[in-house]
Amino acid sequence: MDYEEKYQDYVKLLRMTYAEAVEYLLSKYGPAKENYFKEEGYEKFLAGINKTLTKAKGVSRIKEGL
Q1: Cα separation, 2 vs 35, whole angstroms
Q2: Residue 39: left (phi > 0), alpha (psi -120 to 50), or beta?
Q3: For residue 45, which phi and psi values (nearest 5 degrees)?
């Protein structure tokens, strides 16, 4: 995909409603394969122990443009 195609794809997303964008991205990339945040870290965040959420290691889809 060249620069112009990527740009047009982003413009297309910006014109969609949230629900349309979610549906489009799910059809394009599929659902998440793993949780982005660790369950233990999320529980500590909710309990006020941690000030930020702990991201799970190795969970990234940057190479896919996400």
Answers
A1: 31
A2: alpha
A3: -65, -45
Q: What is the pLDDT of residues 3-55, one digit of tens each?
A: 899 899 999 999 999 999 999 999 988 887 777 777 788 888 889 998 887 77
Question: Which whole-number Å values give the CA distances from 1 to 24, 60, 61, in the listed order?
Answer: 17, 21, 17
- Return the amino acid letter for 30: G
Structural domain spans, the chain? 1-31, 32-66
Gap between the Cα atoms of 10 and 24, Å rounded: 12
